[in-house]
Design a protein that fits this description.
Blueprint: H1 3-15, E1 21-29, E2 43-45, E3 47-52, E4 57-64, E5 69-74, E6 90-93, E7 100-110, E8 113-121, E9 124-135, E10 141-153, E11 172-178
Antiparallel strand pairs: 1-3, 1-6, 1-7, 2-10, 3-4, 4-5, 7-8, 7-11, 8-9, 9-10
């Protein structure tokens, strides 16, 4: 399997969520997954777990490629249902994330990995980015894409607010799925 084939397979995993109903979200995060800086409206988690209406559980986390991290969705409980978290990591119910029917899925690649996923759940957007936000000594945040955490935005425009150390100009749409309108 080529690298492009592998990334295409990851995009189809996210696409299979289109039309499904999200009932709840949980996340694995350090002690403070929400940044206090009002300019940064996101959660930073090691992984997400989404419970669907048919009791199926999907996990969203990152995978490591040669030089970058990308996103993946796996139709199994990789986190919470497998046991407790340890160290500084904690389970957190993510009630602020949208629930309802997944109406749209768009996936984007950058540097050969699945870098970003845009979802519309009900009437609300949800943006997932492989990356991290680091706090500087001046209490500013630097946005690193293609890094090992999952950044979760409920406002797509908020992803543009944090100063970046990496560019998102290389994003290429590799898939776009929507519910058929009847």
């Amino acid at each position: 399997m080529t690298k492009d084939d592998w990334v295409a397979e990851r995009s189809r995993e996210f696409a299979s969520l289109c039309g499904r109903y999200v009932e709840s979200w949980t996340g694995v995060a350090g002690s403070s997954p929400q940044f206090a800086d009002p300019r940064v409206h996101c959660l930073q988690v090691l992984g997400l777990q989404v419970r669907l209406d048919d009791d199926a559980v999907w996990s969203v986390n990152t995978y490591e490629d040669d030089t970058a991290f990308g996103l993946r969705a796996v139709p199994e409980a990789m986190f919470r249902d497998k046991g407790p978290c340890g160290g500084i990591y904690r389970w957190r119910t993510l009630a602020e994330l949208p629930i309802g029917q997944v109406k749209h899925v768009a996936v984007f690649a950058d540097e050969g990995v699945l870098a970003q996923v845009n979802l519309q759940i009900g009437e609300r957007p949800l943006l997932l980015i492989a990356g991290e936000l680091d706090e500087t000594g001046a209490k500013e945040h630097l946005f690193h894409t293609l890094d090992e955490s999952v950044l979760v935005f409920t406002d797509s425009a908020a992803a543009e607010l944090a100063p970046r150390t990496t560019s998102r100009r290389g994003l290429t749409r590799i898939g776009d799925w929507s519910l058929a309108v009847e």
